[in-house]
Structures are given as structure tokens and as C-alpha cells.
Amino acid sequence: MSTLILIPARMASTRLPGKPLADIAGTPMIVHVARRAAEAGLGRVVVATDTQGVAEAVRAHDFEAVMTRSDHETGSDRIFEALTILDPGKTVETIVNVQGDLPTIDPRVIGAALKPFDNAAVDIATLCVEIVRDEEKTNPNVVKLVGSPLSATRLRALYFTRATAPWGAGPLYHHIGLYAYRRAALERFVALKPSPLERRERLEQLRALEAGMRIDAEIVQSVPLGVDTPDDLERARALLSN
Predict the structure, then answer these.
(1) Domains, in order of start, for the chain
(2) Which portions of the chain are predicted below pLDDT 70?
(3) Radius of gyration of the CA atoms of the chain, in A
(4) Residue 221 has what pLDDT?
């Protein structure tokens, strides 16, 4: 499949303003993410941004950037605009959305997101990891994927929630917000209006499930560090400086 990796990057983070350009070991964070994405070896890598400074920083390190509108409500809307700019001839079949705040992500984890597409019925693929820390099971900031097991390494997503679910004995899974879309699925998804459960849980992926789209998740072994706060940034600096 022809694959395009898109990395949405916006400067207007409420908890860590300007984080795409935050310095980590002498390099902007967004460039670290682009390097990890390129190391995955899946295909073309492009940063989608609404800020000229981000585009310039990315290009200065020999990566591609595309300018998008500043009024997008979600990263999915931003990557769809980028896709239409970069591939008007519709040759790209698969789009991988890698969040721009994952500077330490393992390239193999990015590659794992494509594995569910070995089933032609899957519209959207994503990742999850089994929760091992008890405090994460009740933390509403840790999104849980409720799924039906398909194999030892894969779930079919039935629901996503900030609550502790499912009830009873058995594993709980932390959803990792990295997505791969078939092109037709992304086109359909961004045309949908926000759904009731999406608004209630504040989880965009529920829009797809409520519309009857199929999401499968590959189970991986670690959660990539997402940089959302100054403390997260210091952790990323410590990791990448070593």
C-alpha cells in the first residue's frame, strides 16, 4: 500500500505553548518526531502545521512540511487538508497520523499501527497497551480501549472511555492515540459531524464507532511518552540527551 505519514503540529497548546519548537538535545521536538517516523520506513513523512516557524524548522532539518489552515478543530481535519494538498491525484492509500508530541516514540510502534490492515474489513487501525499500574485504571486521563480479542496481539474496538472499563476480572487496555486510516475511511470520518458519545467522553474516535466504522487495535508493549507539560518535556530531554 502507498503510505503517507502525517504529523500534525500546532503551536497553540494550552499546557505547553510552542511545544513543537521546544528544544530537546539541541533539536526542535517536532524534528525528533519526524526522525522517528522516517525510521519506521513506511513511506513519505510530512509535518502538517499552521505556523510558518514550524515549517521552517522542519525544512531546515531536511524534512517536508505543508501549511494548513489555523481553524481546524482536530488533528484529523488537519491531516485531511494536508492529504488533499500533497496528493491531489489520490495515489496514497493509507495515512498514518503520528502526534507531534511523541519525540521518543519507537519507530517499530509506528509500524505496528498498520498491522490490523491485513484484514480488509478494518477502516481505522490504532494501538493499545495493557495497563499494569493500578492508579492508571481509574485515571480519566488514561483512555481505555474496550475491545473484543481477535488474537493474542489484537483487539476489535467496541468502545473508548475515560472510565474504568470493562468491569470484572481481566486486563484493561490504555489506548495510544496514533491512528492509521484507509483513505476512504479518513474521507468519510472528517465528513461526519461530532457524535453524542464523542462529545460526552471528549474522545474523537467514538465518532467513527457511532457511525459503524471498524477500528482494530494492535497491542504493543509500551506507551510512548507524550509531551503535554513542562515535566514531560524535562523527561524527554533526559531521555534523548542520553
Answers:
(1) 1-102 (3.90.550.10), 113-174+187-224 (3.90.550.10)
(2) 1
(3) 17
(4) 93
Assign 3-class secondary structure to 27-69: EEHHHHHHHHHHHCCCCEEEEEECCHHHHHHHHHCCCEEEECC
The 10 Å CB-count burial string (b at 16+, else e) for 62-79 is ebebbebeeebeebbbbb
Helix axis angle, 52-60 to 29-39, nearest 10°: 50
Q: Pairing state of beta strands 154-161 and 44-49? A: unpaired
Cα three-residue angle 142-20-73, rounded to 5 degrees? 65
In this prediction, residue 1 carries a pLDDT of 60
CA angle 50–140–126, rounded 5-degree value: 55
Residue reference for cell 519507537: 106
pTM strictly above 0.90: yes
Query: What is the C-alpha separation between 222 and 128, in angstroms, rounded?
Result: 9
Residue 206: half-sphere exposure toward Cβ, Cα within 13 Å: 18
Contact assessment for residue 176 and residue 97, using Cβ atoms and an 8 Å cutoff? no
Where would I find the beta strands (DSSP E) of 3-153? 3-9, 23-24, 27-28, 44-49, 64-67, 94-97, 124-130, 144-151
